[in-house]
UniProtKB/TrEMBL annotation:
Recorded GO MF terms: methyltransferase activity
Record keywords, A-Z: Methyltransferase, Transferase
CDD domains attached to this UniProt entry: AdoMet_MTases
Organism: Nocardioides flavus
Biological process according to GO: methylation
The protein's name in its UniProt record: SAM-dependent methyltransferase
Domain Methyltransferase type: from-to ranges: 63-159
UniProt-annotated stretches for the region Disordered: 1-20
Length: 262
């Protein structure tokens, strides 16, 4: 692993195939926790039923960016919304088709990238990402502009990401993950390189809390909430760097809720 600048093209070329390779393991490991038609906002396990971040989805056009196997959009469909998924990974979308068949709740989904949404302007009432896409993108200003373009006036944009403060710490669920070792202000992406080929195989991008506020404001979004879900008292599930050990002391997830001011 290393930290170095990476372009949007390089990020996409790495992350699409990476998610294709990882999809089977991801769904096998986390599928039950997510629920086939469940809506979980992050490793802390808070659900949309509890948080009600999207507002009423009934009768609304709803786009999920980075939809994976479409669990959240299936929840939207069960609650009367016209949920549609978009994801970069072919294999993740195959899992979505599998869950469509298994649950009988189909989520129309398309393969694409968050920086070029294949939809007409003002097509949706709500766009959301549950740890989907945003932290894998270099051209994040383009992605936020795309969301603003496809939303109707007053439309809602809600997304969960790794809490920006987590970037100060090693991505370790244990005690070492509690000691700050790197600068919060260093936006240099996290990059993994394939040892055999020397090619970039995984990329994650970091923005500070202030960066996100500015990105939203620049596209005429009004921030209506920023949720920092607390680790639940009896929750003891480890997901990557998220754990009870760290979660009791530091926030692991940030959920931004914004609305178009126009
Ligand atoms: C952590 S998963 C989250 C998926 C789903 N929301 C869930 O909770 O399981 C992130 C997803 O973002 C997708 N993704 C990564 N980069 C993307 C991009 N540029 N555009 C669209 N989706 C992307 C990945 O393929 C992956 O399915």
């Amino acid at each position: 692993m290393e930290r170095r600048p990476v372009s949007e093209q390089e990020s996409r070329r790495a992350n699409g195939p990476d998610w294709d390779r990882y999809a089977d393991e991801y769904q096998a490991t986390h599928g039950e926790f997510l629920g086939d038609a469940g809506f979980v906002w992050g490793p802390e396990g808070h659900t949309e039923d509890e948080l009600r971040v999207l507002g009423d989805v009934d009768g609304r056009d709803v786009l999920e960016v980075g939809s994976g196997a479409g669990q959240c959009s299936r929840w939207v469909r069960l609650h009367g919304g016209r949920g549609i998924g978009l994801d970069l990974s072919h294999r993740q979308l195959q899992h979505s088709l599998r869950l469509d068949a298994e649950t009988g709740v189909a989520v129309p989904s398309v393969r694409g990238t968050a920086t070029a949404l294949p939809f007409a302007a003002a097509r949706f009432d709500i766009v959301f990402c549950s740890f989907g896409a945003l932290q894998f993108i270099s051209d994040i200003d383009v992605a936020v502009a795309e969301v603003a373009r496809v939303l109707r006036p007053g439309g809602r944009f809600a997304f969960s990401i790794t809490h920006p403060t987590r970037w100060m710490f090693p991505d370790d669920p244990g005690e070492p993950g509690l000691t700050a070792t790197q600068s919060y202000w260093d936006r240099t992406p996290y990059v993994e390189i394939d040892d055999a080929t020397g090619v970039v195989s995984y990329v994650e991008h970091h923005r500070t809390l202030g960066d996100w506020v500015r990105l939203l404001a620049d596209r005429e979004f009004r921030l209506v909430d920023l949720l920092e879900p607390q680790w639940p008292e009896h929750h003891d599930r480890v997901w990557g760097g998220w754990s009870r050990t760290r979660g009791m002391l530091t926030p692991g997830t940030a959920i931004f809720v914004a609305e178009l001011a126009r």
